[in-house]
Amino acid sequence: MYNLEQIKQTIIANGSITSSDIPDLRKIVYKDGRVSREEADFLFDLRKEILNFGNLKEWDNFFIQAICDHLLEESHDTITDDDVSWLIDKIGADKYIDHIEQELLCKLSSKVKYFPSNLKAIQEHTNIAYDLGCKILSLLCRNSKTGRSLQFGINKVGCRKNKIVV
């Protein structure tokens, strides 16, 4: 059986993640019935490496579920302060929240009794920004082949790697 690093190198060498990669990842990540911090870090790192490979819904679903399982492993319905800090560092590392990270926040918020206010603020801010971005994204991309952005008040909105950047 592969280890995580071997699977990552295979995926990167192939230039794509396929539905046949997901069962291998699942076997290794859940080998002991839980998702450790090291494995969750690995999934975020792998996700960063494969962002340009295109979307695979099975990968997105696996990623979201594994991160939720990691964060809710011990408490099942609360997120610890350490986990909140870790998640904010992970999703904020590239300075924008994409639709999968939004889905992750949404799923987490639906699974916990109390959704931390700082995560809720990120979720609400990105939802507002995403709605705004969706309304103007086609205009931006249509008017700018280089992905340049337009200035709207204090928010700069543009296209970057098929993502809305605010």
Describe this entry's structure for a reader.
By secondary structure, the chain is mainly alpha-helical. It has one domain (4-126). Helix content is 61%, strand content 7%. The chain contains 7 helices and 3 strands. Strand 1 (150-152) and strand 2 form a beta hairpin. Helix 1 runs parallel beside helix 3 (37-50), helix 3 runs antiparallel to helix 4 (57-72) and helix 4 crosses helix 6.
> What level of helicity do the residues show?
55-70%
Order of helices and strands: HHHHHHHEEE
Characterize the biggest β-sheet.
3 strands, antiparallel
N-to-C terminal Cα separation, in Å?
A: 42 Å
The chain-level structural class is: mainly alpha
**What's the average pLDDT?**
76
Strand content: 5-15%
How many separate domains make up the residues? 1
Strand order of the largest sheet: 1-2-3
Shape: globular
Strands, count:
3
| Count of helical regions | 7
What Rg, in angstroms, do the CA atoms define? 17 Å
Residue windows where pLDDT falls under 50 for at least 5 positions = 146-164
